[in-house]
Structure formats: C-alpha cells, structure tokens
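Please go through the protein record below and see whether the fold suits the sequence. Record follows.
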Amino acid sequence: MKKVSKTKIAMTYAIALYDAALEKKAVEKVFADVKKLIDISNTDKAFLKYLANPMQKDADKEDVLLKAAKVLKLDDDTLRCMNIILENRRFAELLQILEEFVHVYYRRHNIAEVVVESVKKLTASQDKKLTANLEKLLGQKIVLSYHIEPGLIGGLRIIAGSKMIDDSVETKLNRLEILMKGGQ
C-alpha cells in the first residue's frame, strides 16, 4: 500500500472542508470556526491529545467534540468535518488540516500571507504603515504574521511567498564583513 504524506492528507481535508463550506455558502463562518479551533489547539494541547488518542472510545470523543462545538458555537459544516476527521482517525493531523484550510482560504480570496521577522514587536502605527506599504507593493490584500528574531539585531526581514526583503542589521553587517574581507 502506498503511503500518503501528512501534508497531502491535510490538504485533501482542507480543500474538502472549504468546498463543502462554499457549497453551503458558509465559507466565512467556517473560516471563523477554523481560527477558533486553531487557537484552542495551540493553547489546549490536552484537547487534541485526547481526540487523537486511539485508546479513547470514539463515542466519548464524539461527545467531547459535540460539547466543544456547542461552547464554541461551531457551524454544522465545521462539526461535520470534525466528525469525518474523527471517523477516519485523523485527529493527530487536525492542527495541520486547520492551518491548511487557512492557506486555502487565503489563496482563494487572493490574500497574500507575509511573514515579518523583527527584533521586537512593532507598534500599532508601524504595523499599519507596513501593511499599507506591503499591500501597495504586492498589489493585493495581505495577512501578516510576526516572528521575533533577536539575532536580527535591528531592522526587518519580510517574506512573501518566494520573495524576501532583508533589511536587517544582521544582514548589513554580514555584507560589510564580506566587503571588508575583499569579497571572498
């Protein structure tokens, strides 16, 4: 039997969820649900661990899932997808499926995902200005995710798809070092 990668499995489930939501005209609601589930999965590791545990009874997992859906007010399409994931014993890949759904959503809505690396958190005004400039540069709406990288010393490193703008002090110092060594 041919082994399928977890990434491909996550992509398959994410696209199926997106298409089901699109058919029901519930894409925005399901997207909001997915964001909630990602937050919970990142903060409450026990939730995912319990649902992914093969030793737990499926009926018990369904009950937990139903209770979580009520508390979170999840859309029926989202709950149906979670039940399919449960039936197929793919809860170990849930976080990856949810994150892939977000990527599918952004691609289909022509939204660019941009990673910004900086030494410290940007202020609200810096964030707003950076977002406006990047949207103008890329010619589309963007979603920023920030990563703190103390090694940059200062400045920013911006990654949008296969493009990278590196205006960090670390890179400038490295270039200066190369220049001082005679371009070796």
Summary: The helical segments are 6-23, 27-43, 45-52, 58-72, 76-87, 94-108, 124-138, 169-180. The CA atoms of residues 13 and 114 lie 24 Å apart. The mean pLDDT is 90. Strands lie at 111-118, 141-148, 155-160, 163-168.
